[in-house]
Specification:
Blueprint lengths: L2 H15 L4 E10 L9 E5 L4 E3 L5 H13 L7 E5 L3 H7 L6 E8 L2 H12 L4 E6 L4 E6 L7 E3 L2 E6 L3 E6 L3 H12 L2 E6 L3 H4 L9 E3 L3 H8 L5 E5 L4 H11 L6 E4 L3 H13 L4 H4 L15 H40 L1
Parallel strand pairs: 10-11, 10-13, 11-12, 13-14
Antiparallel strand pairs: 1-2, 1-5, 2-3, 4-5, 6-7, 6-9, 8-9
Protein name: XdhC family protein
Length: about 325
């Protein structure tokens, strides 16, 4: 879930509390190039206000016109397809060859309230929609849950999905943390050096842990939604973190430093009998090669690499989930 979709749910509760009627639209599936991912949401209010998005704006305009013309037709929920044919794609300014399928319905306030309870407690959840009859429920998220459409049911993954663990409350961490928050990462900063951690700016939202990195990571149990970046400038602290992070399921493990210091770090890790395949997972120097020099530039480069790796992991999980469904179908047929 992206931060904008959290705003959609909160806006739905706020606007309906003002006595306004609202409808939500959710991306069920996409084909070709699409401006928003599966699971993205937009909220449309009868007074013309819009929160979130499912496209670049033209689809939202079309949805608003549809609501104003026939709101009753969407009371039970309706599947809508946009981008059929070149003429419609041109009218809606969809990318070449792109199309998207939406689920439009009156804003599901009870589901949003339940989802927000999960999210406010720091837990992910899934909203499941039975498309033939519009029934829905919200449940706690499980490992491997992704937003996807299958067999007439849509699963929408909501809430915390990704964590960014920063080793060291250093300068680059302070630039990277707010960027990561806008990308919908929960930010956790680990630094046993109280003078660094206590000087962390109060306006930068992050969970701060005054612990040794290996102990903290052992408790956090990095999963496939976790990224770990070593930024402390202290080889001892960074190496302790990497020894725990590299063998874990974390989708991204990186350390800041030059190519020379990265090579030396790999040699040190090998002395601790870390498996070669685990050491090979280390991304260093951290971040895409943008020619970055200053702390803000380095933070941007790391954020860019986080996006790249996160999207690759989401694609892998979605393919894995689809393969599991195919396998289940095969078992039913064979049985």
């Amino acid at each position: 879930m992206e931060a904008v979709d959290l705003e959609v749910m909160r806006a739905a509760l706020a606007w309906t509390a003002q006595g306004k009627r609202c409808w939500s639209a959710t991306v069920l599936s996409t084909y070709g190039s699409a401006p928003r991912p599966v699971g993205a949401m937009a909220l449309l209010c009868e007074d013309g206000r819009v929160a979130g998005s499912v496209s670049g704006g033209c689809v939202e305009d079309d949805l608003m016109a549809l609501l104003q013309a026939d709101a009753a037709g969407l009371e039970a929920g309706q599947r809508l397809v946009y981008g059929r044919g070149d003429a419609e794609r041109a009218r809606l300014r969809l990318p070449c060859g792109g199309s998207l399928e939406l689920w439009a319905e009156p804003a599901p306030l009870a589901d949003f309230q339940q989802a927000l309870r999960f999210i406010d407690a720091g837990q992910g959840c899934v909203r499941e929609i039975d498309l033939p009859d519009g029934g829905s429920r919200v449940r706690a998220a499980q490992a491997g849950d992704v937003s996807m459409l299958a067999e007439g049911r849509f699963a929408q993954r909501l809430g915390p999905r990704r964590r960014l663990v920063l080793i060291g409350a250093a300068e680059v961490s302070r630039y990277l943390a707010p960027i990561a928050r806008t990308l919908d990462f929960e930010v956790i900063v680990i630094d046993p050096r109280r003078e660094y951690l206590d000087s962390w700016p109060a306006e930068l939202p992050a969970r701060r842990l005054a612990q040794m990195p290996d102990d903290a990571l052992l408790a956090l149990q990095p999963d496939a939604g976790t990224a770990v970046v070593a930024l402390s400038h202290d080889p001892k602290l960074d190496d302790m973190a990497l020894l725990e992070a590299l063998p874990s399921a974390a989708f991204y493990v990186a350390a800041m430093g030059s190519a020379r210091s990265t090579a030396a770090r790999r040699e040190r890790l090998a002395l601790f009998e870390l498996a070669p395949e685990a050491i090979a997972r280390l991304r260093g120097p951290a971040g895409l090669d943008l020619g970055s020099r200053t702390p803000p530039e380095i933070a941007v480069a790391i954020a860019a690499e986080l996006i790249q790796c996160s999207r690759a992991e989401e694609t892998r999980q979605r393919r894995q989930a689809a393969a599991a469904l195919d396998a289940a179908d095969t078992c039913r047929v064979d049985g």
